[in-house]
């Protein structure tokens, strides 16, 4: 199955028949890292009351238990940029898959709270590195007209992971006193599937060209789109690297992130990463059963509603996949941040006036639907394509480091904010953050749809 696309490298037109089936296959396998990302982050939502009772934790320790994975993810993001540059995208993802498998079982069967936290943080290292490399890899291997949709599939895989985690929690709820241990251990199954699937994917051709492995890169590009496509892409990638340094770029230098011509782009990426986690969805994903119980639902019902969250998340992600390459990144960011602001205000009001639990469920599901159709998928697309080739690994590392630190503070602080501020003020605060993000997107974020990575780089570095 092939699709005809049109490219204009060096002002020359080239018709290319892209092997769409092959692009789908390698993108789908790489996106399994997103399944583990979503699964690992959310699986804890169903275990909170059980390990809290087992380890006799207070609210600060509960926040630490839930949020510590994000500190591990921050570490994964910091080392992921360098490792993806030295080892390559594929080998790093294989290492992440092994770590996912080991830490799932380790967290589940930890004999003490410190050991539980240690395995949870190590699992976060895998999450952070995979979250950096997976969308970057998919963006680097996908032709420009397909890139937005392909990277959006990564967000879909995160959503699938979240849904599987909620379903796993529900199915394992009544397995006895060790139910929470089995919930965590269930992570090892998709991790092993991811590991073996990676044997069937190719290395990033952009990484190969930067390492002077041009023949390997052209062979992969040829399989994606044929000889003309391979020649055009390889030429454009080489030109992009040499224009920035005067020489082909074999490795990334961290100090380049702070160059006068590059820092504004890096800053935009950091802000996008931070607000993608600060708007409030983590509070809903990580503490959904607790929120529903506080709204008056029974435990079994609260777990079932969490599955509904996963289903809504899954369904509405397809809106972004279907529209991102037509509507554009910037408009989806604007629509999403504005609507999330209104929904957060509605949640704040529903808890303030103690509306029936059905209203809480409606507003929670609406929040997840909006996020899934806009900010969730578009964030990873924007981060994967906004940075120049020369600094993409380190820039993604810095942006995702900011993402995970933000994620840590939002998840770890939620039980404390809930207790000391109350839910009305907590969601009111998230509404303010959504409004600030809307203004930033409107004023600073460029549109990147339909452009090759090299065209985006040229436009942003030479305005």
Automatic annotation (TrEMBL):
Subcellular location: Membrane
SUPFAM superfamilies hit by this protein: MFS general substrate transporter
Top-level taxon of origin: Bacteria
Residue spans crossing the bilayer: 21-48, 60-80, 92-111, 117-139, 151-172, 184-202, 262-280, 300-320, 332-353, 359-383, 395-415, 421-441
Keyword annotations of the record: Membrane, Transmembrane, Transmembrane helix, Transport
Signal peptide: none
InterPro entries: MFS_dom, MFS_sugar_transport-like, MFS_Sugar_Transporter, MFS_trans_sf, Sugar/inositol_transpt, Sugar_transporter_CS
Topology in the lipid bilayer: Multi-pass membrane protein
Pfam families attached to this UniProt entry: Sugar_tr
Positions of the Major facilitator superfamily (MFS) profile domain: 26-449
PANTHER family: D-XYLOSE-PROTON SYMPORTER-LIKE 2
Stated family: Belongs to the major facilitator superfamily. Sugar transporter (TC 2.A.1.1) family.
UniProt-recorded name of the protein: Sugar porter family MFS transporter
């Amino acid at each position: 199955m092939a699709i005809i696309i049109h490219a204009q490298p060096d002002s020359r037109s080239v018709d290319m028949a892209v092997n769409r089936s092959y692009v789908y296959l390698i993108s789908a396998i790489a996106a399994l890292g997103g399944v583990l990302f979503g699964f690992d982050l959310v699986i804890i939502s169903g275990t909170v009351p059980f390990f809290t009772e087992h380890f006799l934790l207070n609210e600060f320790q509960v926040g630490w238990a839930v949020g510590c994975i994000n500190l591990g993810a921050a570490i994964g993001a910091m080392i992921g940029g360098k490792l993806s540059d030295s080892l390559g995208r594929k080998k790093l993802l294989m290492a992440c898959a092994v770590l996912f498998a080991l830490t799932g079982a380790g967290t589940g069967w930890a004999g003490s709270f410190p050991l539980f936290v240690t395995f949870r943080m190590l699992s976060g290292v895998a999450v952070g590195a995979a979250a950096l490399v997976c969308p970057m890899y998919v963006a680097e291997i996908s032709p420009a007209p397909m890139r937005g949709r392909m990277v959006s599939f990564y967000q879909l895989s995160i959503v699938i992971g979240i849904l599987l985690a909620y379903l796993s929690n529900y199915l394992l709820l009544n397995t006895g006193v060790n139910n929470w241990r089995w919930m965590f251990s269930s992570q090892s199954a998709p991790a092993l599937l991811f590991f073996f699937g990676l044997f069937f994917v190719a290395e990033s051709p952009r990484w190969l060209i930067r390492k002077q492995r041009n023949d390997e890169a052209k062979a992969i590009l040829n399989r994606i789109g044929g000889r003309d496509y391979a020649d055009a892409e390889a030429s454009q990638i080489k030109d992009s690297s040499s224009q920035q340094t005067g020489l082909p770029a074999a490795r990334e230098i961290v100090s380049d992130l702070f160059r006068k011509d590059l820092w504004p782009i890096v800053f935009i990426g950091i802000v996008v990463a931070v607000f993608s986690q600060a708007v409030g969805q983590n509070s809903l994903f990580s503490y959904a059963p607790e929120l529903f119980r506080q709204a008056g639902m029974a435990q079994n019902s609260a777990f079932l509603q969490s599955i509904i969250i996963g289903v809504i998340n899954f369904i509405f992600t397809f809106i972004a996949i279907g529209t991102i390459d037509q509507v554009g990144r910037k408009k989806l960011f604007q629509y999403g941040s504005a609507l999330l602001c209104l929904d957060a205000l509605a949640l704040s009001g529903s808890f303030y006036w103690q509306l029936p639990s059905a209203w809480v469920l409606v507003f929670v599901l609406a929040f997840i639907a909006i996020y899934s159709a806009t900010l969730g998928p578009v964030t990873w697309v924007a981060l994967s394509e906004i940075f120049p080739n020369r600094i993409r690994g380190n820039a993604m590392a810095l942006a995702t480091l900011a993402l995970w630190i933000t994620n840590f503070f939002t998840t770890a602080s939620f039980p404390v904010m809930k207790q000391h501020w109350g839910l009305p003020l907590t969601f009111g605060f998230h509404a303010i953050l959504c409004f600030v993000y809307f203004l930033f997107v409107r004023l600073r974020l460029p549109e990147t749809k339909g452009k090759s990575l090299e065209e985006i780089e040229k436009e942003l570095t030479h305005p």
